[in-house]
Amino acid sequence: MIAWFVALAWGAPAAPTETLVAATLVVAVSQQEAATDAVVAKAKELGGWFQSRTPNDVSLRIPSAAIDTMVAFAEEQGKVIDKALTRRDASQELADLRGRLAAREKLLDEYYKVLATAGSDSVVAVEYQIVSAIAEIEGLRGRVRMLEDQAAH
Fold first, then answer.
1. What predicted TM-score, i.e. pTM, was given to this entire model?
2. Do 91 and 30 contact (CB within 8 A), yes or no?
């Protein structure tokens, strides 16, 4: 039997950068269900969890500090057929998003100041800009939270 183990660990080891790490392993095992249960249990022990599980593969989320331990454990389950490890530095993207978020929040504050002094003929236009800014801010916050979560696990 061949089982596919995908360990996804997103995070920064010790450096201040935010690195996204993904490890993919294809491991031939004699007892597929037992091996899958073992890697899922190990992921939980390391503070992770499984994202998906099918009869032939399992996808795991692992804290970044534990990726090497998880990969070594998965390799011990059988014969490694294929292995891939990728890393992507997301610190520049996060810095850009955080900068854009700060700028939009400052702009929203300015819109609120304008709204406080706006005449009845311009209130609707200012409110439209406020709603638009809030939508953009929420989108940026969501993207930042997603990348930060990936950097942690």
1. 0.60
2. no
Edge-to-edge strands, sheet with 2-10: 49-53, 57-63, 2-10, 19-28, 79-89
Asked if residues 118 and 82 have their Cβ atoms less than 8 Å apart, the reply is no
Do 53 and 41 contact (CB within 8 A), yes or no? no
Number of Cβ within 10 Å of residue 75's Cβ equals: 14
Strand partners, 60: 7, 50
What six digits make up the tokens of 90?
A: 């997301």
Mean pLDDT lowest for which of 37-46, 73-82, 85-94, 128-137? 85-94
Give the tokens for residue 134. 């809030």
* Amino acid identity, position 59: S
